[in-house]
Design brief:
- The chain is an alpha/beta fold and about 300 residues long.
- The chain folds into three domains: about 1-115, NADH-ubiquinone oxidoreductase 51kDa subunit (Rossmann fold), CATH 3.40.50.11540; about 125-205, Ubiquitin-like (UB roll) (Roll); about 210-295, NADH-ubiquinone oxidoreductase 51kDa subunit, iron-sulphur binding domain (de novo design (two linked rop proteins), Up-down Bundle), CATH 1.20.1440.230.
- It has twelve helices and seven strands.
- Helix 7 packs antiparallel against helix 8 (about 230-245), helix 7 (about 210-225) runs antiparallel to helix 11 (about 280-290) and helix 9 (about 255-270) packs antiparallel against helix 11.
- The N and C termini lie far apart (about 55 Å).
- Bound molecules: iron/sulfur cluster.
- Iron/sulfur cluster binds near residues 225, 232, 274 and 275.
Length: about 300
């Protein structure tokens, strides 16, 4: 963050820490204090009178949509965390009207490592389009869940081998907002030219009920939608209603098509990334597992 501040001329930075990660606050506070004592934060960093920069930690309340940069800025300002209209973009008018950049930890880390080790080191890994390595957070039905650093271009198949999940039925690439990829397409690769992702990967084992997975994601988006715009607020509810029809064996293939189109519409016209991606999991599960989710016999008590 200090390097970024030097590059753009910022005087203040904030670490936005979700309340779920409260346990990290003490460690972060100690690290910031150590850097101040070493002259790497605060007034006249490393003796340079033209460079002062400091970092504060601000706690978020645990809202998914606050991962969207304008909602995050609203929350930082003490307002309800809701996405703003863009333009203006935060780089022009951000935190309390100041030009602001919002980046994740991995980006700052990569930038610092490239400066320390040189671009050639970074370019040793990855593909022509996706350079370097990527952190993946792997969870679900696998023997070795955890955080993995792998080169861009790694196939889903190789990733599953690494984490002990070669019998997986499907994987969700990109978390709740991402897409579901079925076993037949495990040759696909993780990178900007194929499956771009923030790094969250959820593995589904052979016995997984994919409609239950879709229902779980749908409930999540209904809960997390801020409700500002209709496609997201209503669209997620309509998809959830469709999932209930599927569970009861009362959804026709024609109506399933309509629901998939609704997901497409949400992607086109929702205001922020949450609504634009809220239908992704359902759309991709419905397309890849049509036979599994259509024509169900309702469960009797
Ligand atoms: S897409 Fe959803 S989360 Fe985003 S602004 Fe609209 S209602 Fe809020």
């Amino acid at each position: 963050m200090t390097i970024a501040a030097r590059a753009i001329g910022a005087g203040q930075g904030y670490i936005y820490l979700r309340i779920e990660y409260l346990y990290l606050k003490e460690t972060l506070t100690e690290a910031i204090t150590r850097r101040r004592e070493s002259g790497l934060l605060g007034e006249s960093i490393l003796g340079k009178e033209d460079f002062s920069f400091d970092i504060d930690i601000r706690m978020g309340a645990g809202s998914y949509v606050c991962g969207e940069e304008t909602a995050l800025i609203q929350s930082l300002e003490g307002e309800r965390g809701e996405p703003r209209n863009r333009p203006p973009f935060p780089v022009d008018t951000g935190f309390f009207g100041h030009p602001t950049i919002v980046n994740n930890v991995e980006t700052f880390l990569d930038a610092a490592l490239i400066i320390a080790r040189g671009p050639e080191w970074f370019l040793e890994h990855g593909t022509d389009t996706s350079k370097g390595t990527k952190l993946f957070s792997i969870s679900g039905d696998c023997e070795r869940p955890g955080i993995y650093e792998l080169p861009y271009g790694t196939s889903i198949h190789d990733l599953l081998k690494e984490v002990g999940a070669e019998d997986a039925k499907a994987v969700q690439i990109g978390g709740a907002a991402g897409r579901c990829v079925a076993r037949e397409r495990f040759d696909r690769s993780l990178g900007f030219e194929d499956l771009s992702t923030g790094g969250s990967i959820i593995v589904f084992g052979p016995e997984t009920d994919m409609l239950a997975v879709a229902r779980n994601f749908s409930d999540f988006f209904i809960e997390e939608s801020c409700g500002q715009c209709t496609p997201c607020r209503i669209g997620n509810v309509k998809i959830r209603e469709g999932i209930t029809l599927l569970e009861e064996g009362r959804c026709s293939s024609a109506y399933l098509e309509e629901l998939i189109k609704l997901g497409d519409t949400m992607r086109l016209v929702s205001k922020c990334g949450l609504g634009q991606t809220g239908g992704n999991a359902f759309r991709t599960i419905a397309k890849a597992f049509t036979d599994e989710i259509l024509g169900r016999v309702p469960k009797s008590d």
